[in-house]
Backbone:
């Protein structure tokens, strides 16, 4: 990693959710001839990863996560504007359709997942809670999703994740999407048993797994 | 090559590990806990003791006579009243008596069927009747319990705006205010329910999984505890926690000048103590992708740091997915007994 002190300064601004300073330093870096991709790769991406790690450790909290995500979006917009027309332009990290399954009304964890996903450049279509399998598939097809993510917090609602896998297969759509499952009672064994592509231990792990699947 | 030892992963899968691998896992587990919680790692002697517990040859292990601790209930009887999965479709009184007489519990609990405080208000009179009737049958102290579950106060289930919808829109202040509004309602409801039960001879109250909806949820439970103890200073109050650190959904709520978000068990217990609670119930999350030895070592490290500083009894939850117990609907006896023994002998808990 490059030792340019600007990268550390920019990263620190992002981690401390200073949106205006993030914008300022990014614009100045580019105006001074810096490669926009460099500040993204050496400062802001490590920064948002650190934000996720701090959140997972309980050292940074949800409102701060939101503000950091906002600052990341600002940086991404400035970088993309500078790269307009070039091959280096930051495209969306992928499109995800997310839902808490039918019969389940828990959504606090999903809220965290949505925030982290957006902070990491993913386009998220959050269908909310208590969502029918057919609705999930309908939306995934409509938005041409890359990944379908489902959350279940009850052992009694987990089976909806299996029903989703079966519905995708019976509709001939299974190969069009990657699937990731999460929620308190969900385990790697469950994911393997139902044929999901990935299991997410927590929000941060979900980001890691989705990025692996999309690369 | 040493003989492989049977153990499990955090999702219950049976795996074989060598002694060296298990030792490595318990070391990594305690290091992870120490790093996250800024607490001491287990000592070399404690790690050796933990290794011995994990690798005991029997399927079931136990403490030596004289080391036994109390066993209480935080809603286990709900499994007995259920008609699904491992339920036995018993009546509420049968479930409570089964837990007392067949499972040998030291305290029993009458849980609300939804196990949330919000719906109790509407049926409080029925709950009073059931509690009073069942309390005449039990020998062990009969607690009444449910979970604060502050999420039920958000729309569409409740009157407050939903932070899960406001936060992604960037409406942070509105989301924080919604949490404070919900917390006030939750505290008021818990106190109301307590007053009614107290009037008919309540023997103890359980606020289970406090903090499940974040720091404001935890604050609501603490405030309720304070009010309960003002009304009846002798009332036993159990405050159980939802996760290993308090989730910062609000980020700024405090109790007696201390921010609640991010608190680990050694900090949670002092806060619960300050609120006047009688028993503290920590819950350390199980990582289902990691091994049982790793998870147990981690849990023991966190909980030991809490018992080291606590002036009230610490009763560790040994249910699925917490404190080392693999995430399985029917908990495996090998892991439950090993976790229980380790929590008693090394983490020095006062009950389970």
Residues:
């Amino acid at each position: 990693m490059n030792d340019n002190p600007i990268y550390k300064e920019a990263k620190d601004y992002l981690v401390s959710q200073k949106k205006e300073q993030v914008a300022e330093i990014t614009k100045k870096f580019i105006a001074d001839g810096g490669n926009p991709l460099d500040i993204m790769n050496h400062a802001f991406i490590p920064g948002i990863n650190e934000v996720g790690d701090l959140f997972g450790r309980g050292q940074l909290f949800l409102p701060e996560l939101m503000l950091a995500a906002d600052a990341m979006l600002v940086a991404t917009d400035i970088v993309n504007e500078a790269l307009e027309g070039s091959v280096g332009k930051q495209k969306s990290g992928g499109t995800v359709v997310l839902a808490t399954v039918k019969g389940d009304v828990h959504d606090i964890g999903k809220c965290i997942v949505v925030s982290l996903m957006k902070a990491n450049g993913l386009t998220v279509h959050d269908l909310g809670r208590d969502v029918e399998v057919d609705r999930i598939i309908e939306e995934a097809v409509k938005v041409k999703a890359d990944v379908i993510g489902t959350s279940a917090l009850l052992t009694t609602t987990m089976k909806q994740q299996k029903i989703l896998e079966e519905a995708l297969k019976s509709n001939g759509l299974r190969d069009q999407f990657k699937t990731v499952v999460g929620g308190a009672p969900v385990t790697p064994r469950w994911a393997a048993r139902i044929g999901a592509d990935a299991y997410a231990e927590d929000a941060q792990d979900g980001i890691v797994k989705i990025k692996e699947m999309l690369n | 090559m040493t003989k492989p030892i049977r153990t499990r992963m955090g999702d219950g899968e049976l795996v074989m590990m060598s002694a060296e691998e298990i030792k490595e896992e318990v070391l990594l587990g305690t290091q992870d806990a120490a790093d996250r919680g800024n607490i001491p790692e287990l000592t070399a002697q404690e790690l050796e003791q933990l290794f011995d517990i994990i690798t005991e040859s029997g399927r079931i292990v136990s403490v030596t006579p004289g080391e036994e601790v109390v066993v209480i209930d935080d809603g286990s009887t709900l499994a007995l009243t259920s008609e699904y999965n491992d339920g036995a479709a018993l009546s509420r009184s049968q479930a409570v008596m089964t837990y007392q007489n067949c499972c040998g519990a030291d305290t029993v609990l009458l849980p609300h069927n939804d196990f949330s405080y919000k719906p109790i208000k509407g049926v409080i009179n029925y709950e009073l009747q059931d509690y009073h009737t069942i309390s005449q049958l039990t020998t062990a102290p009969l607690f009444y319990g449910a979970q604060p579950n502050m999420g039920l106060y958000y729309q569409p289930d409740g009157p407050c705006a939903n932070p899960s919808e406001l936060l992604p829109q960037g409406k942070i202040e509105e989301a924080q205010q919604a949490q404070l509004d919900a917390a006030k309602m939750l505290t008021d409801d818990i106190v109301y329910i307590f007053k009614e039960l107290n009037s008919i001879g309540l023997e103890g109250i359980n606020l289970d999984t406090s903090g499940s909806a974040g720091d404001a949820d935890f604050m609501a439970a603490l405030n309720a505890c304070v009010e309960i103890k003002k009304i009846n200073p002798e009332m036993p109050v159990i405050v159980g926690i939802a996760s290993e650190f308090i989730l910062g959904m609000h980020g700024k709520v405090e109790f007696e000048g201390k921010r609640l978000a991010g608190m680990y068990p050694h900090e949670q217990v002092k806060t619960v103590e300050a609120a006047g609670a009688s028993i503290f119930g920590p819950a350390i999350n199980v990582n289902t992708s990691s091994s049982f030895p790793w998870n147990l070592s981690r849990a023991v490290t966190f909980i030991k740091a809490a018992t080291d500083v606590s002036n009230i009894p610490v009763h560790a939850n040994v249910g699925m997915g917490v404190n080392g117990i693999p995430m399985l609907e029917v908990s495996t006896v090998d892991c439950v007994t090993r976790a229980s023994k380790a929590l008693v002998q090394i983490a020095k808990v006062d009950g389970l």
In short: The first strand of chain B starts at residue 5 and ends at 8. The interface with chain A takes residues 9-13, 36, 84-85, 151, 157, 163-164, 167-168, 170, 172, 175-176, 212-215, 245-251, 261-264, 287-289, 320-321, 327, 329 of chain B (CB under 8 Å). The mean pLDDT of chain B is 95. The radius of gyration of chain B is 20 Å.
